[in-house]
Design a protein that fits this description.
Residues 140-284 form the Tetrahydrofolate dehydrogenase/cyclohydrolase NAD(P)-binding domain. GO terms for molecular function: methenyltetrahydrofolate cyclohydrolase activity; methylenetetrahydrofolate dehydrogenase (NADP+) activity. The protein is an alpha/beta fold and 294 residues long. It contains ten helices and eleven strands. The longest helix is centred in the N-terminal third of the chain and has 23 residues, at 8-30. The structure holds 5,10-Methenyltetrahydrofolate. Residues 50, 96-99, 121, 141-142, 170, 232, 243, 262-264, 267-268, 270-271 line the site of 5,10-Methenyltetrahydrofolate. The site of 5,10-Methenyltetrahydrofolate has 18 residues, from β4, α6 and α10.
Length: 294
């Protein structure tokens, strides 16, 4: 079997069109456009590129972008004060604080300061609690993007065996909850999991989010499985800069029925789901009916 390649970029472009189409009616009812604020503390070059590309996409879709790039020495009090100012700013529907934050800042304290209705990253304990208890709320962009691709690829996921490798707050844990909500039987694997290969071999759906390049080997993949690769490790291979996934892609191609590439799979979805969550938050805050765009 040769796997189909899941084109995250193409799905994200389609979602972009559906998002853009909601904006004229929103503007007619509210007199404004949806707005997204992104905060970056410190000058990690990769993070700066993401923040700028988020800003560019936000404007391309016809929304307002507010970018705050602060020096690495910014204090926690100052950062929380900025979040509170953005909470109070009606032009801002979504607030994303780029993680990780410098060591002298307590991430949870900052995330808790975000108004849960503007928590487009789904990181606030209120959002996490809503996801676990199946109430409506904002869901982290990367896992929601993975679920959109899986639903598009497979339709109903009920009864499928899924494994998530990685248990981060931003990706692994919410991914497990989303798959459970979609009626999968979910295995959460991580660095202490024993016999990982055997557990992966049982899975119809594999979501690799461990952040270790190439750790999932081709012969671990059950023939016909669907593979979502969240890994993005920057490396230099044969003198060229490369972005590497967590899955041995070449070997997986021979076993999986479908697989996301890196780049061009989950990455473009993450940014577009951020836009999606921003228009959802905007509609919710304006008291407009809930949107269903996927
Ligand atoms: N609070 C928070 N939320 C985040 O969502 C968040 C964060 N912090 N910190 C940093 C990571 C990283 N991240 C990516 C977004 C897009 C691509 C992306 O578009 N990748 C392209 C390739 C881009 C390239 O070549 O560098 C792709 O996979 O095709 C990757 C990574 C979001 N993050």
């Amino acid at each position: 079997m040769r796997a189909q390649i899941i084109d995250g970029k193409a799905y994200a472009d389609g979602l972009a069109d559906r998002i853009t189409a909601t904006i004229p009616a929103f503007t007619e009812k509210t007199g404004r456009v949806p707005g997204l604020a992104v905060i970056l503390v410190g000058s990690d070059p990769a993070s700066e590129i993401y923040v700028r590309s988020k800003g560019r996409k936000t404007r391309e879709l016809g929304m307002a972008s507010f970018e705050h790039i602060l020096p690495a020495e910014t204090g926690q009090t100052e950062l929380v004060a900025l979040v509170e100012a953005l909470n109070a700013d009606n032009r801002v529907d979504g607030i994303l604080v780029q993680l990780p934050l410098p060591d002298h800042i307590d991430e949870l304290a900052v995330v808790r300061a975000i108004d849960p209705r503007k928590d487009v990253d789904g990181l606030h304990p209120e959002s996490a609690g809503r996801l676990v208890s199946g109430r409506p709320g904002l869901v982290s962009c990367t896992p929601l993007g993975c679920l959109m691709l899986l639903r598009d690829q497979l339709g109903d996921l009920s009864g499928l065996d899924a494994i998530v490798i990685g248990r981060s707050i931003l990706v692994g844990k919410p991914m497990g909850q989303l798959l459970l909500g979609a009626n999968c039987t979910v295995t959460m694997a991580h660095s202490r999991t024993r016999n990982l290969a055997d557990k992966v071999r049982q899975a119809d759906i594999i979501v690799a989010a461990a952040g270790q390049a190439g750790m999932i080997k081709g012969d671990w993949i059950r023939p016909g499985a669907t593979v979502i690769d969240v890994g993005t490790t920057r490396a230099v291979v044969d003198g060229k800069r490369r972005l590497l996934g967590d899955v041995d892609f070449a070997a997986a191609l021979e076993r999986a029925s479908a697989i996301t590439p890196v780049p061009g799979g989950v990455g473009p979805m993450t940014i577009m789901v951020l836009m999606h969550n921003t228009v959802l938050a905007a509609h919710d805050r304006a008291g407009l009916p809930h949107l269903q765009l996927w």
